Fold these 4 entries.
Entry 1:
Amino acid sequence: MRIAILGAGRVGKSLGAALGAKQHQIVYGVRQPNSEPASGEFKTIGAAIAGADAVILATPWTATEALVCEHAPALTGKIVIDATTPLNASSSRLALGFDSSGIELLQSQAQGATFFKAFNAAGEDAIAKPLFPQGRAVMFVAGPKGPPKQVVLGLVSDVGFEAVDAGELRAARLLEPLGMLWLELAAQGRKGDFAFMLASRDSPQPQAASPRAVVALETG
């Protein structure tokens, strides 16, 4: 797939490297592409969105809402994966509390796009190496049912996580606090090289998208 990653910080670049290794076409959308290092393909945010089948938001939350509002028309028809944790300016609490979620706000501002929550509860180390001695790290996905969700689950699997469908978009009200918990644990000295896992006594069911579903979205 052609994937635009908006933001070229540590998480964005780790996602780009992992997905690029699976033969996805990656472009980074940044405010000033000429100031970025030579490695990777960097474009303006608008140009990156225009050529993409899917968009990953890997920007700080304080910039994400304005970015989505500004580019809402260009996001129409796109799969948008929100990897942010919506913290307030001081990073002390969730900006929207627990009665809504950041991604529900973003979806309301770009109604022509289809939003999914994923990649918000892991750091760049886990994204680069999701397999731990105890097993494979889990990544939950919240968003509407249908073929686009299967594609997102497939992308999560491509990165190397155990992809788990967490339900509809409102389930992000649970996943965003999970991202804040990850940040709190990292601040306590775990240095980012840890992740959450899901233990089950049942055999896991495959969650990846079928190749046919991916091709349909690439060419449609």
Entry 2:
Amino acid sequence: MISEAVKQDALLDELLKGCTSSKDILGEHGLLKQLSKRLIERALAGEMTAHLGYAPHAAEGRGSGNSRNGKQGKTVQTESGPLEIEVPRDRTGDFEPQLIQKRQRRLVGFDEKVLALYSRGLSTRDIQDHLEELYGTDVSPTLISNVTDSVLEEVREWQSRPLDAVYPILYFDALFVKSREGGPVRNRAVYVALGVNLEGQKVLLGLWIGVSEGAKFWMSVFTDLKNRGVQDCFIACMDGLTGLPDAVEAVFPQTQVQLCIVHKVRNALKYVTWKDRRAVAKDLRAVYGSATLPEARKALEEFGERWDSKYPSIRQSWEQDWTRLTVFFEYPPEIRRVIYTTNAIESFNYSLRKLLKTRGPFPNDEAILKVLYLGLQRIAKKWTMPIHDWKQALNQFGILFGDRFKL
């Protein structure tokens, strides 16, 4: 008895007879398109039979009040290019095909391909050229915009979704994008909030667009997070924007603010000549690399003794922000390594900037949100593992924050 697998192989061999190149299989008039056309038309014919209740030429169709009425040509866009098909019609015009519905011009999968290209930072024109080059598909910029606009409602739902009550750690940062929103091209600040939940997973909480980065707008971001359910955060990590720590503490008064050490070091080195940079960086590392807060204080004093004569503003700046720079010394190593810098959110923003670097100015804020949101969905797929040593950090949070630690 011939097995099913052998029968299938024999059928494939028969289909592939005469195919001598990839073009014969995948080309404009290749086997794959011919099979797709036959399969779709066969399925549509089956739908018509189910709609009428009788097979073609069957006697029971006589006097039924409705019958087949020829076919109508139609072009649909597929992942492998345009496909010409014939859709059956009935005399009363009641037939509503489900596989390819009336006025549907794209098969399932085509929109996903457009969105995938858009999520990688390709412009509408780039996508149009890409589809034309690879698939011979002439797609208008308007159609591509309509496809990408379909995610806007999803963006709005995502942006207003309820959030967890407690995030042990929150990171805040902003990136800048050129936009024509409201007139001439100018920079728009995209505010980004990244949380670490109780499972140690990174979660992007939202994207907000403003004219420029400022503490006043950040206050509205924190208020939005609170309105969406965030009740508490143990530690908020951020750069040293004036007024930003005060804005966080106004909305979440129990939250400790840890200023990013890496940002602080970068800013300090702006004042240093090239020949001194290595030595200054080493001495600053002795400050934030100390095992305890008293050791860090002593290292900063030694830094001042060595460098105050040349770069007095560095130690003054660190002294001014000392309380918020040294929060991480209150915690064990498992927590220190994830709060002393905003690298977690900067790495995320770097991935977003890669999407934007080849793009010109965006026409409006909605276009910015579409690209960043779609890019986020692709980037977040890599966030599968919790933060390293998170179990130990979680136990420490439980001991340190007691009743604020809600499991």
Entry 3:
Amino acid sequence: MTLHGLYILPSLFTAANLILGLISVLCSIHGEFTTASWCIMGSIIMDVLDGRVARWTKTTSSFGIEFDSLADLVSFGVAPSILMYQMVLQTMAKPGITIAVFYVVAGALRLARFNIKAHEGVSSSNYMGLPIPAAAGILASFALSYELFENGSEITVKTIPIVMEKMPFIFKSIPILMVVISILMISSVPYAAMKNFKWNRPKSFQLFTLVVIGIMLVISYPQNTIFIIFLLYLLSGITGYLWRYIRLRQSLSLAARLKKNTGDTAGPEDRK
């Protein structure tokens, strides 16, 4: 393959991402929510592959970054928003429209911020804010699980009972969940970026074991496990942020006490 062909290769995956996003929108409009959700999941896979291919072939470019963001906005911004609107939000009238629009705008802002950092050459081991593919994955995987719940007597796919029991509650919580997801996308809460993970690090074996277990669960309980994985990723950023905040407050409190104790034990001559 020529050098020119190498530069086209990542864009083919990006185009596939965009096409699947558009198909998802059309399926959602026609009430085919399971197909629409799987199209979003396929877009996530294409999004991962286009980045990997670009790095492996060393064909990362400004065009690729911009094209990727435009595709992501459709597949992970517009498509999940329409999916949730058709499934849940349309019964809420104007508040439902507002939530759907807010999600898309937050996703666009998230992508714009990411592009600025990419063009400036800023690299980090973590993402700042919830990545938009993960946001879309949460909503699409919920839709897949809820469709199983709705068609419980007609399905042959294995499900996790405790997850299926919570589906009605999660369904009612979707408007709040979408607002939370939207805020997290434009927040400064750090999320792990697996693309920078090095398999030769000491904890690689433990992570590899978890990945294998996750794959086995996905094979056994596909829809439910995918939803759990995305939900855990969402919670990982929040819990990590809160843990670091608590540790920082404890450190500042300890430093203040040490400073106070040092001042109290100083002699009269030391205080002059």
Entry 4:
Amino acid sequence: MDYSSLLTRAKSQLPQSISAHERFQVPAADVLIEGKTTVLRNFEEICQAINRDTQVVLGYLLREIGTAGAVEGRRVVFKGKVTPIQVDDRIRSYVEAYVVCSECSRPDTRLVKEDRVAILECDACGARRPVKAVKKTAKVAEAALEENKVYEVMIQDIGKKGDGIAKKDKYVIYVPGTAKGAIVKVYIEKISGTIAFARIHRE
């Protein structure tokens, strides 16, 4: 049997997880705001896709978002209003740091502890590396949004209570009395974390 035939035979005997190279995809966050809480409805599906324990992933999300929350069945309920962009961004950071292999970019990895250090082991290529959380550089010199100042924004969506929703950098801005698609000047009255509350600025 020649080399080409042997190679073809070897490939046919590889496990599905190694021979298949379909693009790794994490489900988008299915977020619903209910009053003063936010529900991530497909939390368990996301954890299954990245093959990580729900409590471990939840702990990371709560720390990064800066809120409290708990698992309820297949979903997570956060205290306060959390946007889909915030959740997707934190899940992406978790996957980059704790799931995807830095050598082969595959998700076939396991987390193990060695001398209190978390090690990411890849079953696909055998690579090992210490886990380092993705650190985002904070802009300290200039605040992207400040209270008692006026900004021009576009209303991208309408919230459950009828308030317009705009976005500026990492901030989600709620503006009552606005329509989707409108470009308005708003006066920032209050900022809480990455959530801002504003009113239309009338000159």
